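User: Here's a structure from my thesis project, written as structure tokens. My advisor, Dr. K., wants to see whether a designed sequence matches the one we expressed. Can you design one independently, without my sequence as a hint?
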């Protein structure tokens, strides 16, 4: 229900990300030079969407909504 509310309010896949600083290398410390790979993050996000029954845009599929007993129409 929360996801459907967020979609109704204009939130979508572009909002399911991390701040850009997570994808830039750390400058100091024991993990200096480490960063998250944006492509790997995007693949993981797509895998999560598939796992929870959402389409590639992060919208719950009709099948998932039926499974949960939710009727919903975008207005």
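Assistant: Designed independently from the structure alone:
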């Amino acid at each position: 229900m929360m996801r459907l509310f967020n979609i109704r309010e204009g939130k979508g896949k572009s909002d399911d990300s991390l701040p850009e600083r997570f994808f830039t290398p750390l400058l100091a410390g024991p993990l200096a030079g480490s960063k998250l790979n944006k492509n790997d993050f995007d693949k993981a996000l797509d895998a999560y969407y598939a796992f929870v029954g959402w389409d590639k845009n992060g919208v719950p599929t009709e099948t998932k909504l039926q499974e949960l007993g939710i009727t919903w129409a975008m207005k």
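When you compare it with your expressed construct, this may help: The first helix runs from residue 2 to 8.
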